[in-house]
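Can you give me the bound-state structure? Components:
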Amino acid sequence: MTAEERLHPGLNLHHTDPHAHAAAVGPLFGFWLFLMSDAIIFALLFATYGVLLHGTAGGPGPEGVFHIGSIAIQTALLLASSFTFGMASLSMKYGRGTGKLFGWLAVTLMLGLGFLGMELHDFTTMIAAGAGPDRSGFLSAFFALVATHGLHVLSGSVWLVVMIAQIKVFGLDLRVKTNLMRLGLFWHFLDIIWVGIFSVVYLHGLIG
Amino acid sequence: MTTLQKKGRIMTETHDLWHLLLGNLSLDALPTYSMVAMAGAAMVVLGVLSVLGLITYLRKWGYMWTEWFTSVDHKRIGIMYVALAMVMLTRGLMEGVLMRLQQADAVNAPGFLAPDHFGQIFTTHGTIMILFMAMPFLTGLINYVMPLQIGARDVAFPVLNSISLWLTTGGAGIMMVSLVLGKFSTGGWSGYPPYTEAAFQPGVGPDYWIWAVTLSSIGAMLSGINFTVTIYKHRAPGMRLMDMPLFTWTALCTSILMIFAMPPLTVATALLALDRYLGMHFFTNGMGGNMMNYANLFWLFGHPEVYILILPAFGVYSEVISVFSSKRLYGYTSLVWATMCIAVLSFTVWLHHFFTMGQDANVNAAFGIATMTIGIPTGVKVYDWLLTMYRGRVRFSVPMLFALAFLVSFVIGGMTGIILAVPPLDYMVHNTVFLIAHFHNMLIPGLLFGMIAGYQFWFPKAFGFRLNERWGRIAFVFWVAGFYVTFMPLYVLGLEGLPRRSQEAFNAGFEPLLIVAAFGALLLLSGLASLFVQLWVSVRDRDRSRVPVGDPWDGRGLEWSLPAPVPEYNFASLPQVQGRDAFMTMKEKGTAYRHPEHYESIAIPMNSALGPIVGLAGGVCAFALVWHMWWAVIAGLVVAWGAVIARSFARNTERIIPAENIAAQQGAWLQMARDARAVPRELEFTPENKGLAEVVT
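Here's the bound-state model for the whole set.
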């Protein structure tokens, strides 16, 4: 890889749009930095979860409130959405027409919303069963960690809607391209965080 | 239904409506509990009204809005940050004076401040001095100076820069509002639960603290990202990392620390808010909560924060000592490495803030040793500065005087830090005023003197005229004497066992030294007053101290190669850099003050109202959260995010300055430089100094 191609990590536009590629250096680097600081937030929420794991205060513990079936579907939805976003990025990079790009972004959005719907359903079920965030330190930490991720997915979904609108208005101009690249990083980042949540919270919680 | 019942129902309905609109806010929120608090509130209200009145009277609203509030120029933003810092410094210092007076007055007597009010004052004093004085001050200096030092036209994300400024201002605004409406937290600047939980402080105090701190921490994190990208990606052609001026290096390290250290604070305050607002149990007593988790989260921010504060000051001292010794900086490479080492080590010592909170002796020992290790790179720096002066031609200008006072005082403070780093000794003096003396010893000569030195040093660059030397010296004497007279007695009192944050003391033996310390606090206040007098006198006499050519101190970095004040596009043409001390090299080679081969048009970002809108909406949202006005919380969030999304649809965001305008402006300035007399250093402080330095080869 040449220095020119290596301007920033992640999918780049070097071969297809050198101008946008060069212009993306600062914005993308800045966004990586933002993700690093966001990663600190998640790291600390994971740590808090670890600290409070046994603070169940006589209330339900992990095995009592997690349902692997729902979680498996959520995981599948989110991982699939990362794949579809990847396809959207490739459509953008190789100029396969805004139709395809729209399609992939819309599918990503649907998968994201599906994930959010299921997560919300799980939360309301838990709260109705007396396992709300005010029940114990453990549940507070669980809700803070998982809902922070959920809020990120929600923000990402709003961002997707904005980007779809912007492609309609502006086509694939420089800023739309840069923003789609940033949104891509954000979306994949949330996937990685989810893998952490799935392993640390759900799998570990259910295996015990 | 009887009339009485009807009346009753109407009253309840009115009350409900009131509650819907204003949440828990009512007339009870006014500070009628104490004359001092009333006076404070009156000062804020009068201050705000007189500023608003003055702008209206002078018909300057349009000017303020277009030239300042919506400006995305890093220089304007930097100046606004420093102005904010000065305002907050005034309040914070007055609170410090109140505390010293109270303690001197309250030996076996109640004094003039009630315990609850005293608690509010030490909480706001700490919060303001760290987050709303020191942070804006250093962010302002970095904003102004760093892009000029690396030959950039602006920071990487100018609009984001404006958002950072206005979020910080929103937080500062919340701090000021808290003086007028409601009581502030009494939980100290670190806000430890469970005392700050709703069970112990059900009022609005901790909520004010939480949201003010949250706004500023988000602003600081965004600034960190912005500066880091600027330094890595926007340096002038030819400038390698190891060619950057030392102030830029410290700005880089501080920015990286901001990216990593502000999120823990955001997490700590957010989780505390969840406890308080939604009844969760992160830090509560019982129900599975764990307060120690808060201590760890807070100091994961809090310790790196110390270095976020001190590193830019180290950068200022490096510049000042080198320029006023007329020598290149001694040990540049070791200074860079020392700065980096400090930045990394700052994440390994947070536990020393709570040695006494129950961990095992081995853990304490490990963190104690790590803490002492930081003394090594810091010592390297002190020797480098000393050796820079060695055989240099030292000129005792105001910034240099502050730098010298720093060198001596900081070493004393560092020594007492080593005492505190030894866990068994820490057990003896923790939570006493010994600790207060120690960190004021680090932060006043370390941070604050550095900021004042930087302000004096770069003021002519920003405004085109020098600050008055005489009043600068008077300020210097007051600040240094004030610092020693205030804080040296606290070391003794701490060793004698006076607990920190004591509203009243019960040992008559403490009284003499407390009176001395109170006197010292008045000296510090005189120091601040002298700075304001200096500003006033300097503005009045500005025609005698103009330095339009822009290099009043025979400076070394690229910022001195520009006119004073600096044009909005900074560099008429981007400089080609070879090696360190780029401008000094140009002067010595005779290549300074030359026309570039050709001029090009420059695109600069247009003003944007996004920053003020987001800051105001953020401030409204925070205020509404404090008082539980839910509609306003939602409105604030919708406006802030809506504005950001709307802005993402803006495409026409730059304006072009034509090449011929730049050529004309630059040509006039170059002509002025040719006509000016190059002054030797002896005439530095005289009206002869027009900002063209005589080159000594």
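A couple of observations. Chain A touches chain B through 39 residues (CB under 8 Å). Chain A has a mean pLDDT of 93.
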